Amino acid sequence: MTLVVPGGALRGAHSAEPPRPTALPAWPVAAILAFYPLWWALGLGVLIFPIMAAPMAVLLVRRRAAGRELRLPPGAGWWALFLVAVLISIAALGADPAGTVAEHAGDRLLAVVYRLVMYVSLTLLLLYTGNLTESELSRRRLVRLLGWLFVVTVAGGLLGVFAGKFEFTSPVEWLLPDGVRGKGFVQSLVHPYAAQIMDIVGAEKPRPAAPWGYTNTWGNNFCLLAGWVVVAAWATRRTGPKVLALLCLVVAIVPAVVSLNRGLWIGVGVVVLYVAGRYVLMGRLWVLAALGLAGAGLAIALTSTPLGDVVNARLDNGKSNGVRTFLIERAVDGFTESPIIGYGSTRNTIGGRNSITVGESSACERCGNFTVGGNGQLWQLMYAHGTVGTIAYLAFFGYGLWRFRRDRTPIGIAAGAAIVSSFSAMLWYNAIPTPLAFMFLAYALLWRNELEGDVHGS
C-alpha cells in the first residue's frame, strides 16, 4: 500500500522513518570543561579530549547526513594545511640529526601518534563548538565554563603551594600493567600530583602543576583562562560574582608568584597590555586608572610580603637560560638541515649542553638528555614540521586575529587576549594538548560572535 504525499513523493505507509535529530547536544564540550577535575582525579586528564572527540565526530557526521550545514572555521584551509604537514613530516621520522640520540623510527612513533591524535581531537573540538547554536550551548555558558577552569587552576596552584608533595594513584593507573604505569610519559598522563618538585632557586621547591600535569602547562593555562573569569562575572548584574572573581584574581597572585614561572609573568603582562590597549582605542580611558591601581596593589603586595623575595630569587637564578639557549640553537640547526618538512617529531640530544657523558638509564629515564623542540611550540613546529607546518599554524591563528579584530565585545577582547598571549608563550611553552584546546575555544567564541553579528560591544 502506498500513500500519495503532497509534492509527488511516494512512501510506504509502514516504512516511514522518524526524522533524525540534527541538534548537537552540549554535553561533549560541557563535560570536558565542567568535570575536568574529576577526569584528572580518575587518571583520564588530557585523555578526555580524544575520548570525547569520538562522540563529537559521530554527532557531526549525523548532522551532516541529515542535510544540515557543517560550518568550517575562518582560516580552515590554513589549519588543514598544517595537519597535512604534520602527516607528511612523519616520513622523516627515521632521520638522526647531528647531536641527537640515534633511534629507529618505530621508537619515536608513540610520541608522534599521541600528538597527531591530540591535534585531530582538538580540531574536532573546534568544529563541534563552532557549530553549536546559542540554544544548544550559549556563548555565555561556555564563558562560565572557561571561567570555572580558571578557578580550578588557582585551586590547583594553591594545592601545589601548600601541599606540594600531594599525589595519589588514579583508578586508570591501577589498571595499567606495572611495566607501563612506571614510564615517565605514562605517569604524566594518568598520575595526579599537585606540583613538580624542582631546584630553581637553590633548594627543591614545589611548583604548582595540578590539574594540568606540568608547571609550564599550568602557567600557560593560567594566562589563557584568566580573562574568562572576569568576563563571566561582569556578564551578570549581581555584585556577588564580581566580588568572587576579584577575590579569585587576588588569591591567584600567590601560586602565580610561587610557581617561579617567568613565562607566566610575561604572559600576564601581555594579556593586561593587550586588553588595556583595546579599551584605550575604544575611548575607555578609565582603564588606565584601573591599570595604575592594579599595578600599585601588586607592587605593595610584592614589597610587603615574602612574595617579593620569591620574585627576586627567581630573577637572580636563571639556571634554565643556558638550557633554553642550547635547545633553541639545536632546533634552529635542525630546521636549517630539514627546512621544508622537518623531522616529524622531537629528538633527544646526546648528553647535555656541557657534556656528552650524561644520559638516560633504566634507573633514570629523564637524566641528562634534553628534548629538542620540547621548550616551546614555535621551536617544535620548526623542528618537527618545517616551514610549511610552522607557517600554516601561525597563519591560522594570525588570520583569526585579523579577521576578528573589530570584535569589541568583552568576549571578543578576552578571546583575542588569549590568542595573543599564546603567541608570546610559543617561545617557551608547548601547546599540546590543553593550551591548544583553550586557544581553539577562544577562536570558536570569536567565530560564533561573528556568526551572531555580535561584535560591537556596548
From TrEMBL:
This is O-antigen ligase-like membrane protein. The chain crosses the membrane at residues 39-60, 72-92, 112-130, 142-163, 218-236, 243-258, 264-281, 288-307, 382-402, 409-429. The keyword Transmembrane applies. It comes from Winogradskya humida. InterPro entries: WaaL-like. Keywords: Membrane, Transmembrane, Transmembrane helix.
